[in-house]
Amino acid sequence: MPRAFASAIGSVWSTWAPMTTMRTSLGAAGDSPSDWRPDVPTGGIVERMTHAHPGYADRKVDHLKRLRRIEGQIRGLQRMVEEEQYCIDVLTQVSAATKALQSVALSLLDEHLGHCVADAVKEGGADADAKLKEANEAIARLVRS
């Protein structure tokens, strides 16, 4: 994730998913995902993947378009603050960006459940239990936000 995007999204992210360790500006020590997201293992989420491709791979292009649109919204928020626009107008845009992020999260969760979790449950064993636990934790994080 580009540093500018990570920095810009910091304030919206803290509204969307309150995490006390999230930094609004990633410094040299903040290059690893685990530095700013305690629930992400060192090396990132990729370490956890056991499939040939993630559940969202078929819709990757759609997700990237949506995330780029959200990135544009965040940059617009920065401009609004720089231009000292009216508070309610800024808050309205923060709400829109938050809702857009939540929509992406729900879509990714749906694809994770339909692909990764479903495949693990079909195979059974410890991997199925781990995937179900992981999905429960992800849902809990989304509900808290």
UniProtKB/TrEMBL annotation:
CDD domains: CsoR-like_DUF156
Pfam families with a match to the protein in the record: Trns_repr_metal
Signal peptide start-end: none
InterPro entries: Metal_Tscrpt_repr, Metal_Tscrpt_repr_sf
Keywords: Copper
Segments passing through the bilayer: none
Family from the record: Belongs to the CsoR family.
Entry protein name: Metal-sensitive transcriptional regulator
Source species of the chain: Nocardioides panacihumi
